[in-house]
Amino acid sequence: MESNVSANKWWHNAVVYQIYPRSFMDANNDGIGDLTGIISKLDYLQQLGINIIWLSPVYKSPMDDNGYDISDYQDIAPEFGTLEEMEQLIREAKKRDIHIVMDLVVNHTSDEHPWFIEARKSKNNPYRDYYIWREPQADGSVPNDFHSYFGGSGWEFDPQTGEYYFHQFSKKQPDLNWENPKVQEEIHQMMNWWLDKGIGGFRMDVIDLIGKQVDDKVMANGPKLHDLIKAMNQATFGPRNLLTVGETWSATPEIAKLYSATDRNELSMIFQFEHITMNWHPQEGKWQPLPFDLVKFKQIISKWQTALAHEGWNSLFWNNHDLPRAVSKYGDAGIFRVQSAKMLATTLHFLKGTPYVYQGEEIGMTNVRFDSIDDYKDIESLNLYHERIAAGVPHDQMMEGIYENGRDNARTPMQWDTSEYGGFSNHQPWLKVNPNYTEINANAALQEPDSVFYHYQHLIRLRKELPIMVYGDFECLLPEDPNTFIYTRTFQNQKIIVLSNFAAEKSKVLLPASIQNTYGQCISYNYSPRAELKHELTLEPFESIAILVHDKS
Ligand code: GLC
Ligand code: CA
Q: Is the CB of 175 under 6 A from ligand 1?
C-alpha cells in the first residue's frame, strides 16, 4: 500500500470536465460557443469543484468534423477566438486551480492544412510523404476495401497526381504518415509549443491508430504504436508531470497496462470503450443499439477495475461528445431523471480511476429528438443516414438509431437558464437547443439544493477528502443480479459499500454475508440516508447509496 501511495500523481484524485467549445457558451452572440464564453463560466466550474478541463479542439479548422480536422495546430479558429484569448483562458483557469488539457488530433489533419495542400501538389513535393498515398489498382479502383468510419471508402482519388490518399475519417481528414520521422518531429515541436504556454496535458484523439500499417490493413495497435508514444513522451510531456489520456477504442486491459503502467513512460491513462460498444449491434454497430445489459456491464467494469488495480490507471466516464447522454442511455430521462442522474454519478465516481464529466452531465441534460434530419449537423450521422437510406434502410429506423446514439445528442447547446436559446446565446445557435431547457438548466440546478449539480459537487469534494475513494481496492458483489450494482472499496482499515439500483422499480436484494449487519456513515444518497445494512434491502427506483464503514471486521 505504501508504495502505491508514494506513486501518487496529482491527477489521481482530480475530476476532469470536458468542454465541447462550440456548444458551451457563446459570448459574442453569433450562435457559436467561444473561448470568452468559457472564461465567463470558469467560476461555475470552480464551484462544481473540477480541477481539469479537457477542451475539445479549438484550433483553426474548416470544421468538417467540428474541429477534429485541424488546418493550423498553432492557431485558434476565428469563431472560437484568438491565441490571446486562449492564453487568457489558461491564465484564468490557473487562478482557479484548473488545468487546461488540450485535444491532440494527430492521426490526421484537415485537407486544408498547409502540409496537405503542399503534399497533393506533386509526387515529389517535400510534404508528399507526410500523408499516405497509393496508386490505383490496374482498373483504376481503390487500393483496397478499407472503409472510412464516417461512411464510404477510406481512399480518396486525387486527380492532380493520379493517386489515392488514405483517410480513416472524412475525406477532409487525411491520415498523417507516422512512419515519416519528419511528421513525428513536427508534431513534437507543436506539442512543446503548447506545453510552454502552460497547458496541463493532452487528450489524444484516436491515438491507437497512429501505428497503422495500411498495406497490411492493420489500423489499431500497429507494431510501432508504443514506440511512437514513448518517443512522444520523451520528446514532449515526459519530464513535465502532466495528464495525458489516450482515446483507444481498441484497448483491452492488457493493452491499457502498456499505455499506463508508470514504468512504461507512455500515458497517464486511456479511455477504453468496452462498456460502450457492448451496447452496439455486432454487425450494424451503434445505429442498431442493443438493450442495456447490466450484468455484462458489471463484468466489464469489474474486469477493468481489477486488471488496473495496481498497475496502470483507469479513466471513468459515461459519456462524451461522441456518445449519447448518460441519463437517457443508462438512467431515465423522464420522472426519475434527477434520481437516475445522481445514481449514475455515484456509481461512477466511487470507482477507482479518474472521473470525467461531460458538459451538461452535471445538470442531467438528456438526449434530443429532432423531427427532421436537417436539424442534425454531425457529419457521422448525416453521412451514415444518407448512405443507409440509399441502401434501403427505412427513414424511421435510421432516425431511431440517431435518437439513441447519434453524436448530436451530446452537442446541443449547454442549457444555462430559461431565456431564449437556453442562455447559451442571444442568436439562433448552430445546433438547436434541446427544448427541455426551460426545465433543465444550470440556473435552476444552482437554485435547488437537491439538484444533480450539488450531487456532483459533493462527489468531487469527497474524492479529495477520502483517499479510500482514490486508492481503495474494488470488489463487485452479486455480479449476477440484473438490477443492482453493488461493490466495495477497501483501503487500510476502511471500507466503502456502494449500492445502486439501475431499475425504474424497487429492487430487493439479499445482501452477501460480507456486508450484512454493517453500520457506518452514509456519505452519498439520492433519496434519504441509510447508515445500516441488515441482511436484505429494498432499494427505491434508481436509488444509490454509499456507506463508509469504519472498523472493518
Ligand atoms: C475521435 C473524436 C471524434 C472525431 C474522431 C476523428 O473519435 O472523439 O469526435 O470525429 O476522433 O477525429
Ligand atoms: Ca461566439
A: no
